[in-house]
Write a structure and sequence with these properties.
Two copies of one chain form a homodimer. Chain A is α/β, with parallel strands linked by helices. Chain A has 15 helices and ten strands. In chain A, the strands form two sheets. The first copy, chain A, has a six-stranded mixed sheet with strand order 1-2-10-7-8-9, sandwiched between helices. The termini of chain A are far apart.
Chain lengths: ~325, ~325
């Protein structure tokens, strides 16, 4: 057992849990491709391998964790159903996982959530319960739903089974790309970064693990520096998936297994998003671009073989296509 | 020998040329992935396999034909160099192929071509010669360059070696997806469709081959109906890669080996482009979407296993990212 401060939770999962999660997910999740780009290699001076979780089901890595958590429920829990709060990728991921397994899913969503997000989640058969756009309303609504219906809570990044599921992306990346000198994952709530760190540490302990976040939401960097979770109060960043602060569990993993945090400005994030669209011809959301931006700007002087996880591709292209329609129709 | 009308050129290439082109291209071109989409399968009622030539080098299938043509030049021709006219994907494809092989490339481009296209082509080391934006100026400029420097002409779709190179995409698709009931390729000048038809006919003669084009540029449909090449006068379509009319060679192949042409409206093309961006998370240009649109609208009632070639991903996203920057920076 590793010795930890009293206030740090023990870490009850390791590489075996991630390997088992990978086997469990095999019939359900895509083994997403790994792309490379000559231009990115030239610009960065490294050999970069991009793990395309934007091509995962529901367009984000979140499906891995949500599905793993549902597969690990017992039969009574599956029959009763699950609840979570999210207006983002976790909501759609849990909804699809529930639909595939016949588990009733309830999503608590602020009534200010975009109609398109709500419709996408309902499209996977989930029941939506609206709450006020406050932390208090969200938590009391989730608690009330959970108690009334005996729902199991499946949090986006507080749940060890979700974290283990997220780690399967890095496990695949190591299989597909071969040995890596550096692995980079975005960090918001920390589920993907924690899963990545556990997978990489278990499989390839010499690989440096780096978290990437917006400079405007650099709570993970400040948390690691101070040794205490630093809250993030509604930070202004285009990387909307990375506005959350760390949880105690993800912080415990990140503190132990992550070597550094690298940040990028909003302009750098937008430039990196565009670079990936234009050069790699894949759609990523700005939250994913934080792993590419520091390689383009050489803010991160990574050498050798660098694996990065492109976390998702759910971005609103409405204005772009409205523009095309206005010009052509 | 197949009997042909007197005015139709004989077809001097077949499946062997495409197989040889594939071997020749193997060290140079990407073996692009084939993606599938549950939603597209549900919407279309078919099992659709999308060959991602948007992920090809220079972002388009055009690299295959240009590279094959250059690899087949003799040493004197390589030393002297090549010339073509194009302001689109063929220009960049030929420029990159020349750069890789050390063959000097001259591109004749109308002086009205977007600066971004010119810069991209120059970025691959090609020499640009500007002409007036008229057919006469373009042809006389190409002829003058060719004569002055002993350049070999490498046309985008009149050259049999280019057509054979383009056919390698369908050959790979058949290898990757397995047997196909239907194969669909876009048709502008007809190089990709002709190459596809030759490959599919040679490998899998029971597969139905369909060309796809905008209803606003339906010259291929009209040409097949009338048995004569119908010109296309600067048609208004967002599918800018498909505004060209057929050449005599591509028409000869298409007439013999293509079963039908399917057309789509501008609104259908824009919807299909958006569908692929949003659901498959890959960037395609509208010219590519003509193969997806008829499956989404059920205008083509294709059953069984349908292979489609997504021809390219070179689309101007400037306005979209300007919008993001205006909102966030």
């Amino acid at each position: 057992m590793t010795s930890e401060p009293n206030d740090m939770p023990a870490i009850p999962i390791g590489i075996e849990d991630i390997v088992q999660a990978a086997q469990r997910l095999e019939p359900w999740a895509h083994r997403t491709p790994v792309l490379t780009s000559r231009t990115l290699d030239e610009r960065s001076g490294a050999s970069v391998f991009l793990k395309c979780e934007n091509l995962q089901r529901v367009g984000a890595f979140k499906f891995r964790g949500a599905m793993n958590a549902l597969l690990l429920l017992d039969e009574d829990q599956k029959a009763a159903g699950v609840v979570t709060h999210s207006s983002g990728n976790h909501a759609q991921a849990l909804a699809l996982a529930g639909q595939l397994l016949g588990v009733p899913v309830t999503i608590v969503m602020p009534r200010t959530a975009p109609a398109v997000k709500r419709a996408a989640t309902e499209g996977y058969g989930a029941r939506i319960v609206l709450c006020e756009p406050t932390l208090e309303s969200r938590e009391s609504t989730v608690a009330a739903e959970s108690q009334r219906h005996a729902f199991t809570l499946v949090y986006p990044f507080k749940d060890w089974n979700v974290i283990a599921g997220h780690g399967t992306a890095a496990l695949e990346l190591l299989d597909q790309a071969g040995p890596l000198d550096v692995a980079i994952a975005p960090v918001g709530g920390g589920g993907l970064l924690a899963g990545t760190a556990l997978a990489v540490n278990g499989r390839s302990s010499g690989t440096v693990v780096i978290g990437a976040e917006p400079a405007n939401a650099d709570d993970a960097r400040r948390s690691l520096e101070t040794g205490l979770i630093q809250p993030s109060f509604d930070p202004r960043t285009i990387a909307d998936g990375l506005r959350t602060s760390l949880g105690t569990r993800t912080f415990a993993v990140i503190r132990q297994y992550v070597d550094a945090i690298v940040t990028s400005s909003e302009a750098e994030i937008i430039d990196a998003t565009r670079f990936v669209w234009e050069r790699l011809k894949i759609v990523i959301e700005p939250s994913s671009a934080v792993v590419v931006a520091p390689l383009l700007t050489a803010r991160l002087r990574a050498k050798g073989r660098v694996g990065v996880i492109l976390s998702g591709g759910n971005v609103d292209v409405e204005t772009f296509f409205q523009g095309l329609a206005a010009q052509w129709l």
